[in-house]
Write the structure tokens for this entry.
Amino acid sequence: MASDATATRITPADLLARKGGEPIVCLTAYTYPIARLLDPHVDLLLVGDSVAMVLHGHQNTLGATMDMMVAHGQAVMRGAVHACVVVDMPAGSYEDSVQNAVASAERIMRETGCDAVKLEGGVEMAPQIAAIVAAGIPVMGHIGLLPQSVEKEGGYKIKGRTDANIAALHADARAVEAAGAFSVVIEGTVEPVAADISAMLSIPTIGIGASPKCDGQILVIDDAIGLTVDRVPKFVREYAHLRDAVATAAENYARDVRNRSFPAPEHLFSPQDKA
Ligand code: KIV
């Protein structure tokens, strides 16, 4: 387990206080080793429902379940001592009623020990956000392109292209803020619109496919390290190319096993070895 007696975990309140200040660095994380590696470098780790696609091979984030989010939330919490850890509420766990939303958020907090939950939606989900906040649980909002709405919308549609949609985005942003969210993700939104929303709000905005003028940025970790095996989205910058490294390692390992050069003498235990 990760331990650093001197580490102080960043809180949602700390991040709220950074509105308009130093950009907030966020990445997704789903596992213990990745959480340990990222933790010293980021302000926030999101256990995103993208885990359903990235690690479990589902077509979209609708494959995420409460059990999945709790298990990955626990793993990330074991590895992170410094970053604020936020766990996504999966589709179906909060939309139908305020009661269900609070019960689901409470389960995630109780079973993972994370710092906050995130849910998708603006005006329509404001009652859920307000109720979860009233229950003492910090909430991160998510507006713009909402991956959990992919089937309803018939695909992933970039937001902010029409006046009507811009007005709806502004209403969503204001509703999330008024409901008490400590920050809000803006995803897949035309640049000047995302920048305007960021300037309009008093809570930090975290962009993904949005604007450098947001108060922070987030990427899916597998996209950022070049491990994504399918299509890499336009808004991603790859900071490493682990696809190639993994394929090369597997190719070299297979060669060494087949030609019996692995294991070598230094990997073997002799009867004289202690322990
Ligand atoms: O699930 C996720 O990874 C997310 C980010 C894309 C913001 O919600």
Remarks:
- The radius of gyration is 21 Å.
